[in-house]
Amino acid sequence: MERVLIIGTGLIGASTGLALRSAGFAGRIDGWDGSSLERTAAVQMGAIDAAAATAEDALELARKANVIVLAVPVLAVKDWMQRLASVTRSGQLITDVGSTKLEITELGKTLFTAPDAARFLPGHPMAGKESGGAMLAEAALFDNAMWLFTPAASEPTPIETEWRNWVGFFGARTLDMDAARHDELCAWVSHLPQMLSTALAALLEDKFGDAPEIGAIGGRALRETTRLGASPYSMWRDVAMTNTGPIADTLFALEQRLAHVRENLRTPELRDEFALANKFRQRR
Q1: Can you say how many angstroms the Cα of residue 250 is from the centroid of all Cα atoms in its chain?
Q2: In terms of C-beta distances under 8 Å and separation of at least 24 residues, what long-range contacts does 184-190 make, across chains too?
Q3: How many secondary structure helices (H) and strands (E) does the chain include?
Q4: Domain boundary, last residue among 177, 193, 223
Q5: Is 149 found in the same domain as 217?
């Protein structure tokens, strides 16, 4: 692997470039982002060597790259997959870091299965921050994180194996799973916590606004449960649009659970609920 192209030089894309350098990658890393500020920041911090000026220039760089990393929102990943299908070839690898995988994996099966096509490896590093942007990127972002893959093909190509090795050099652990299972599990462990935190923070804003008492008495519990509420809509719109069913199922289940808690505030059932919650936390 001598040339890498990173499409999307925000938090995850720039961190990928920094992680490659930190792990000893000595080849060339090019990048592109729709924001000139993100492109410039990624170059200045050493996450990429140079940035393409336009999307068309990025497609030209894609022809030369061994590995192309799509570090953009899910719907943009699908758009770039369509663009790259006609300019890439066998021996190259296209991978992504999208938070949902079923739609991406299914599209990959239609675009990249011909003998002369590039290999497509859907991926999802379980790492990030509540805010994005290249300025928050760091080489250690993936250290001890789980990097999930939902491959359509059973036998990896040499370039795919090499990329998986580099992910390991980042300090990440890897796990392969079915794409539908991925989206179901992530709806529970990632998407539901985000929606819960967003709803709670929005509810508090509606109820109290800028009341000074909230800042004065709101302690660690409030900060921790609303931390994800700082995440921008732009980061989560595509997740909600491409994993609607599983997320809706988790929200409905939570609604029922909250109703159960509400109805048992003065019964032993509340104690049992705390016991189950304590058991879950003790396992982790």
Answers
A1: 19
A2: 184/246, 186/99, 186/100, 186/124, 186/243, 186/246, 187/243, 187/246, 187/247, 187/249, 187/250, 188/250, 190/99, 190/126
A3: 13, 9
A4: 177
A5: no
Question: Sign of the C-alpha dihedral, residues 185, 191, 197, 199?
Answer: negative
Q: What is the largest distance, in Å, between two alpha-carbon atoms of the chain?
A: 67
End-of-domain residue from the set 151, 177, 203: 177
Give residue for tokens 């996450």: 47
CA distance 33 to 8: 5
What pLDDT digit, counting tens, does each position of 156-178 carry? Answer: 999 999 999 999 999 999 999 99
pTM as predicted: 0.92
Task: Give yes or no: residues 146 and 269 share one domain.
Answer: no
Structural domain boundaries, residue 71: 3-177
Amino acid 216: pLDDT: 80
Helix (H, G, I), strand (E, B) or coil at 233: helix
pLDDT digits (tens, 9 = 90+) for 38-72: 999 999 999 999 999 999 999 999 999 999 999 99
